[in-house]
Design goal:
Chain lengths: 130, 130, 130, 130, 130, 130
């Protein structure tokens, strides 16, 4: 089956359904995002990706909101439209206010600017940072 | 003057010295990073960049540590060696522990992976995220 | 003429038509992709780009399917929607099965993840790889 | 412990040693690369990353050499120096000749060029590729 | 207010209106682009970004058209659809002909190709360029 | 022969020597850059790349200096250290003053910032730019 159509729960294999159920239980949602429905075309990728995301995004030394905001920041930096939309929603659901979003965007923009200034001016690493 | 040498405080113009002093005062450091010493070759860029960084990185809806970690995450994602070194130091100075760093890295890595999965599987944005 | 409209064979200059014919003959297609119809706005770019692609993508030490898959992998990594769509089609036409696509995507995703881990952990190159 | 030093087998915890042994066994090498010695600073990342790489890089619908070459192509495209060095070595070890490397490089270069041409000419996706 | 709707002049605060008026006066346009209407959700970002753009894009050692073309080149290289559209329009308005656009695109494409060739062949910097 | 050593003129094949001579004649230099000495490991890539660069970088609707500056801007944006060094030298040789370089860097930095702002704020393309 080509991967240009989403695999819905009702059409999914038992293995895929098990993953969908775990996602829904963990995230307390009614249905999984399109992202998982498309990854379901390659079950091993679906299983491994969900396993990794579940482990990585659980609160730890960083709380869940901070992790969602870092995920959003990277997605904005990389310019992935799907990811910006879905992780923007996830971050807001985790507690990101519009003021926090505005500040996150300011940091992401500035970091992308100064990264290029450091590149172009060929700045050597300070000994203190080696 | 070509920009392959850093401009030290002692050789700097009054305009550049004023910026260096504000950086040192704001960050409570003895000397500014190489980044600023190289930007000093183009004073208008130095003035504007420091002004923006100072404004953006001040604690607001997001605290200073969270901002430093987002800055580091973007720098890692972009692969800028200078920025990874200097912002890694800044984040640790602001309170990032090694456990936090490890979790930040895990999120940055995973986001870069799933951004490409979303690209390659051509996942359409869910209506709920429009 | 602005470049927001495609140049169709019927409206093309003799120089552009010659390129279109060579593309169609080489790829055994009825009509060229939009990509070539838009590049046709700058004939020297069209001529040079097709010449390069034709030379590079011919089977050699790497077979044509492997080359198409590498092209798709880079396009996915860069997040170019047009390229992902057109090179996905080209790779499937050259023999990429859905199982191969799933494995290619897994590699592209993982490589993008570990590239950032290597960046952020500032891993020095092993002497054996110098 | 900060992550600016590698963790050698002799100083590693049992959990990390188990991963190092699996890497060495799977890859038939005497010692693991620096990449794993640095990831060892965050054992959960080491465990998960090795688990994913081991699963993804095993021969399947794509053989191991093709997978190594895709990994190298993405690393070249992203400009990660560590990854280019280590995956270049891995691909050569898996059977990539210098002629294959030259052709891989030509494809990676061309794909990066045409990705931008497609971006800048704002080429719409052909209906046949939707 | 979430940032999925543009802020029009009529609904804007006095601070935001002042920025909109300065943009319209400087650029001699009837209304500002969507970009500014969305940034208006975070007034400090709007103020700072317009201030920077106004300063940076004014004719200096480089004329305004050259600056617009560099801005477009970077936007094409990064693959930002909004930016390619808006900066393409800005560059044409500043005097970029279709022939200039074609040549700019050829340079952007080639630079993206040779950047990867330099990466992958691991070319050391010539002493003369240190 | 592996590609970790440069191929010098004295050790080059007649085909490679012919390309080196054309580069030296066109650029009025005593010896070619390392970039060409490494590409020489894959003669077809050397021939095609030099042919393309020679054609693209010749003065046309854009003069040679403007083309060199665009090339440098893209290289800075992509963060390729070799390219930033070599194209910085080429641009200066073509007439780029330090004041021009400073302004180019300011534009490159700003474009990378606003590209991400446009991404993250999900700004729709204005009808006038379609």
């Amino acid at each position: 089956m080509p991967s240009r159509t989403p695999i819905e729960y009702r059409d999914a294999s038992p293995q895929v359904r098990a993953v969908f159920e775990d996602i829904k239980r963990t995230r307390r949602v009614e249905d999984v995002n399109n992202f998982w429905k498309y990854l379901a075309h390659h079950p091993s990728t679906l299983v491994r990706t969900w396993g990794s995301v579940k482990e990585i995004m659980a609160a730890g030394a960083l709380d869940a909101l901070t992790k969602e905001m870092i995920y959003l920041a990277v997605s904005v930096s990389n310019g992935c439209p799907y990811c910006i939309a879905s992780h923007g929603a996830a971050a807001r659901k985790a507690g990101m206010s519009e003021a926090m979003f505005g500040e996150l965007m300011a940091v992401v923009g500035m970091a992308n600017e100064t990264n290029r200034l450091a590149n172009g001016y060929r700045v050597p690493i300070d000994p203190a940072f080696e």
